[in-house]
Amino acid sequence: MTIERTLAIIKPDAVAKGVAGQIITRIEHAGFKILAARLIHMSADEARGFYVVHRERPFYGSLCTFMTQGPCLPMVLEGENAIQRWRDLMGATDFTKAAPGTIRRDFASSIEANAVHGSDSPESAAFEIPYFFSSLELCPR
User: Fold this and answer.
1) Distance of alpha carbon 27 from alpha carbon 128, whole angstroms
2) What is the pTM of this model?
3) 41 classed as catalytic
4) Residue 135: what pLDDT?
5) What pLDDT is attached to residue 34?
6) Angle between helices 20-29 and 82-90 (to 10 degrees)
7) β-strand 73-80 against 3-10: which pairing, if any?
8) How would you class 78 by CB atoms within 10 Å of its CB: exposed for 0-12, middle for 13-18, buried for 19 or more?
9) d(C-alpha 31, C-alpha 62), whole Å
10) Beta partners for 34?
């Protein structure tokens, strides 16, 4: 059993649609422990810093603009194989290719406005979690 932590973000489109509570319910029903959560409104600089890994990609600018359009809800999730299990619950980035019952299939409206974000590896989780939360903010195991 590998207990991992991953970053999850309920993106501005999902917050604006009023489905954040439904997404949190799915997270809890899937057995994740929410260690930290905060409603924020990212600045342009914060979005650029968070998505720096994509800075050479053609969608970088529009992604940063999208993530600053309204509040989002970053969270730290913990559980057995949390990174892959959260990615499975989210569904494919392209919501039209996401499996039925996944969050993106049910709540996304485009590849960019796809409701949620999740770390894709232990390395990205190690960068992403402290981007939003200090170790003092994480609830103890």
Assistant:
1) 19
2) 0.94
3) no
4) 85
5) 96
6) 130
7) antiparallel
8) middle
9) 33
10) 77
